[in-house]
Each structure stands twice: as structure tokens, then as C-alpha cells.
Amino acid sequence: MDRSWSDGAMPTIPESDSARARRFERDALALREELTRGARRYTANAHDAEDLVQETYAKAWAGFDSFTPGTNLRAWMFRIMVNCWISGHRRVQRRPAETLTDVITDAQLMSESRRHPSVASAETHALQSIPEGQLVAALQALPEALQSVVVDAYVYQLAYQDIADRHRIPLGTVMSRLHRARRRLQAALCPEVDPQPARPAVGPSPARRTRRTSTRACHAD
GO biological process: what's one of them (predicted)? Predict the structure, then answer.
């Protein structure tokens, strides 16, 4: 006896291909305009943005069986788009962790390390060994406001003022967002690295302590 029938539950009927296609067209294609706006934050021009959206929809349709109806389709689609963008950028760059490494580590040190590989820090080597999934997750975890300035500054190498003009925000806001993004990415990918330099112990210097000791000794005499 079918247990689901005895419990009063209707048996699950597999979704037909045509029904799945109609659901995809109704729900996923309705997000196209929003996805296109998001793609333009990651790409340099409208043509590349359209290519990214097309690839996103192709991947989404191929994996639509894995999407659970009733959950956040928008977040699912944007996650696919970010994955497509990361993969495409890496195919071009062929340097696995460089984009996020640039964000996390000191810009001047990274510039030197590219010219002189022996200068690269231990943190840089650690970042380059981080699996792609962790890098993608770290970037996805950033709020959209931080994500967009990170992409503009470290992928497209835009000047801070150009980023400010593009997003219509003050220059100081750009710098603040980049700083917050660096701290978040470092905390997510390199939690063992202390972002703050060690501070000297509070108190008088050894020489000053010596002078004080000598002075007390003189008064004692």
C-alpha cells in the first residue's frame, strides 16, 4: 500500500518539460532587466553585459531542475551570474586569485610582487592556493554596494574619481567602501592574518626606565 496515500498526501507528479519551460519563462525571464543592470556592473560595455546575461540564462536553464520552487529565484540567478563572471574573468586573466588578492593585500606590495615574484608575501601565496569556490563565495557575500566598487577598482582598474562618477557617490564613499570590502574579504579568506599592525607596548622606553631608576638611586643616596 502506498504510504503517501494512507497518510492522506497526494503523490508527487513529475513536472513535464513543457511545464518546466513555462515556469522558467514566467519566473526567470521576468528578471532579465534586473540581471542586465547587474551585469553592467561587472562588465565594461553593454555587449559584454548581454553576453553575461545570456550565459547566465543558459546555465540557469540547464540547472533549473536543481532550483527549489518557492525559494529565492532572484538570489539563485544572481549567484549563477557571479559564477559565470568569475569563470570568464579567470579564463582571460589566467591568474586564479589575483583579483581578490589585489583587493586584500597592499597595492604597492602587489605591484612589486608582479615585477619581482620573490617579493610576494606569504599572504599572497596563501590566497593563490584558496579554492575557487571560496573566492566566489567571499565575493558573493559582499553587499552589492561593496561588490560593484571592488569590480570597478580591481578588475577594470578605474580611478577612484571615475568610480565615484559612475555610481554618483562621493569620492570618500568609494574609498570607504573599498576599505570595508578589503577587511571583509581578508576576514573571510585569511582570518589568521591580523589586519592591524602590532602596536608597541604602552609605557616608557627602556632608556627612560633606566634614567628613572638611576634618578631614584641618586635620591636614595
Answer: DNA-templated transcription initiation
Which is nearest to 132 in space by CA: 107, 98, 157, 103?
98
d(CA 221, CA 178) in angstroms, rounded, equals: 61
Other CB atoms within 10 Å distance of the CB of residue 67: 18
**Range 16-94: architecture per CATH:** Orthogonal Bundle (1.10)
pLDDT tens digit string along 32-70?
A: 999 998 888 777 678 888 889 999 999 999 999 899 888
Residues 6+ apart with CB under 8 A from 144: 38, 41
Q: Top-level CATH class of 95-191? A: mainly alpha
Angle, helices 171-189/132-141, rounded to nearest 10 degrees: 140
Q: What is the pTM of this model?
A: 0.44
- Cα separation values, 150 from 100, 117, 179, Å: 9, 24, 10
